[in-house]
């Protein structure tokens, strides 16, 4: 297990370093998606891999056909930059978080805004659906995470513990736990059902920019402005592996790299194949 984990980390390190630096010897650009007017802040694939979703500084989300690069529709409603987007597990809905302090739920098939989630007092940096699609999680500049009922838009609970801006949030694969990364240089593990803080992961020396769970939920991965990625044991909070790179920014969790990956750039989305 240790050897397999180390091998994964070495491959991940090589892949991440190459792609973040712009050195992509193992990647071939398939197509570019052009349509946004300003910076693209967040991207994700639909569960079936047929569509891509993007959120931009131009205040919109856009849905794209991955096979053709065609823009299918635009989701308009936010009044300021869209920082984070996610698809529901069934692919029928999209979730977005914005500088306007709100989350919005969208009907993917029609582009209609279903509801707005109001509760954060400052910029929303990160949003995600729970694995069953019933709940939404958000992280904000107001230093809190919030859990929402997707069906009603009601705020269920607030997770308080970070001392600085929250940059990234995610659910564990079983939906029982939440993970957050913050400007306070830490990750925190939370129990979703109670909002209780279970443990803090300390080791980064600068802001944590992205976090993710492994597919089995046993490990967490974090990227930081300190130019490192750290692999953590979720149960103990201990570091498992450590990677130092020459780049300062990690924009997206990287546990879910599959056959394709998208990178955000100014006004464009580039799709690469391995």
Give a quick rundown of the structure.
The chain is mainly beta.
Report what the structure shows.
This protein is 7% helix and 52% strand. The chain has 274 residues and is mainly beta. It has one domain (29-273): YVTN repeat-like/Quinoprotein amine dehydrogenase (Methylamine Dehydrogenase, Chain H, 7 Propeller), CATH 2.130.10. The strands form five sheets. The chain has a six-stranded antiparallel β-sheet with strand order 4-3-2-1-22-21, with no helix packed on it. It has a four-stranded antiparallel β-sheet with strand order 5-6-7-8, with no helix packed on it. A four-stranded antiparallel β-sheet has the order 9-10-11-12, with no helix packed on it. Strand 1 (28-45) and strand 2 form a beta hairpin. The chain is globular and about 45 Å long. Mean pLDDT is 85; it is low at 1-24, 247-266 and 269-274.
The CATH class turns out to be Mainly Beta
Strand order of the largest sheet: 4-3-2-1-22-21
Shape: globular
| The CATH fourth-level homologous superfamily | YVTN repeat-like/Quinoprotein amine dehydrogenase
Low-confidence stretches: 1-24, 247-266, 269-274
Count every beta strand, where a strand is a DSSP E run of 2 or more residues.
22
Tell me about the largest β-sheet: 6 strands, antiparallel
User: What percent strand?
Assistant: over 45%
* Rg over C-alpha atoms, rounded to the nearest angstrom: 18 Å
Number of helical segments? Answer: 1
Helix content: under 10%
The assigned structural class equals mainly beta
CATH architecture term? 7 Propeller
Give the number of domains.
1
CATH topology: Methylamine Dehydrogenase, Chain H
Rounded mean pLDDT is: 85
What is the string of SSEs from the N terminus onward?
HEEEEEEEEEEEEEEEEEEEEEE
Distance between the termini: 25 Å
